[in-house]
C-alpha cells in the first residue's frame, strides 16, 4: 500500500469523488468543442468554407470564450461554485445541440458563439472547487486529474463522432454529446456542496482539507474583489502571461491536428481515430504526472513555489521537440505522432501547474476571478493564433505547399512555453503569495 493510499484510508477520500465530477465536466467540455475539428472537411465541402472561414469560426468561439471569462470568474466567486458551474454546463449543452440545427455558416457562428460564452465557466469553477476541496500540496495533482478530462474528451471524439456521422449523420454528433451534459447536471446538483456543508464528509477529511489553507475570511470581508485591484498584482500578470502564450498552442492542436494529419498523410474519417487517440492518451498521462511531480517534490521537503516552478521549467523545455515533427514524420508518420504527443503531454502538465499556481498565490475567494482573467488572456492568444493559422494555410495552399504553413506554426508552438516561464520567473520568482487583499 502506497503512502497516498494510507493517507486516504486514514482521513477519507470523498474529495476525490468531487474531483471525479470535475473530470466528467471537463471531458464533456472538450468533447463538445472538439467535434468541429473532426467534421471540418465534411462541413467545408457542405458549406463551401475556406481555411479563413474555418479559422473565423474558431475565432468566434475564442472571442465569446474571452468575453465569458471577463465576468464568469467574478460571478462564481460571488454566487458560489454549485450554481455557477450548473449554469455553465446547462448553457453549453444547449449550444452544442444547436449546432445540429445549423443550416449554414450563420447558424454555426451563432451556436459556436454561445458555446464559447458558456464553456468559459468550466475552468474557473473547477479551479475554485479544487481550492475549496484540496489542501495546497494536492491541488496540482487534483488539477491534473480533472484537467486530464480534456484529453479523454479528445480521445472519445475521434471514435464517437465518425461512428455517429456514418450511422446517423453529422447532426447527431452534436445532439448526443449535448445530451450528456444533462447527465452531469443531475449528478452535480444532487451531490455537490462545500466541504463544511457536506454531511457525508468525515471530520478528519474536513480537517485535512482545511490544513495549511487560507485563514477563514470574516463574512463582512467576503465581498467581490474587483478586477482593477487584482490587476495591480504581479501574480495576476504572471498568470496572464502563462495563459496568453501557452493556451493558443493547445487550441491550435485541438482544432488543426486532424487537418495536419490529412494534409501530410492523407488520413480521413476513421483513419484519424488511432493517431488522435494516441496523442490525447499520452497527453492525459502528462496531465496526471504533471501534478504528481511537484507533489513528490513538496513531500520531500521542497517549498510549494520552488517545486511548482522547477516542474514547469521541465514542461516548458519538452515542447521544443515539436520543431522536429515534420522532419521526423517524413521518415515515418508515427515519429511525428510521438513528438506531437510529447508536446501535448507537456502542455497538459504545464496547464495543471499554471492553474494550481493561482491557489498558491491568491486566497480562495479570488481564485475564480484570477482564473477568469488568465483564461481570457489565453483566449485572446487563441484568437491571434487562429487568425495566423488561417492566413498562413490559405497562402501556402495557393502556393501548393501547405506544409510550410504548418512548419511556421510548429515554431510558434515550440518556443511559447519558455517565453511564458521566463516572464513568470521575472515577475513572481517562486510564486510569492498575495497577503494584502482585504
Give a nutshell description of this structure.
Helix content is 80%, strand content 0%. With 438 residues, it is mostly helical. The protein has a single domain, classed as Up-down Bundle (Growth Hormone, Chain: A).
Task: Record keyword descriptors for this entry.
single chain; 438 residues; mainly alpha; Growth Hormone, Chain: A; disordered N terminus
Low-confidence stretches: 1-8, 214-222
Cα-atom radius of gyration: 21 Å
CATH classification class: Mainly Alpha
Mean pLDDT: 84
- Overall structural domain count: 1
How many distinct helices? 19
Distance between the termini: 44 Å
CATH architecture: Up-down Bundle
Number of strand segments: 0
Structural class: mainly alpha
- Beta-strand portion reads under 5%
Tell me, what's the shape?
Answer: globular
CATH topology: Growth Hormone, Chain: A
Characterise this structure.
- With 438 residues, the chain is mainly α.
- It has one domain: Growth Hormone, Chain: A (Up-down Bundle), CATH 1.20.1250.
- It contains 19 helices and no strands.
- The termini are far apart.
- Mean pLDDT is 84; it is low at 1-8 and 214-222.
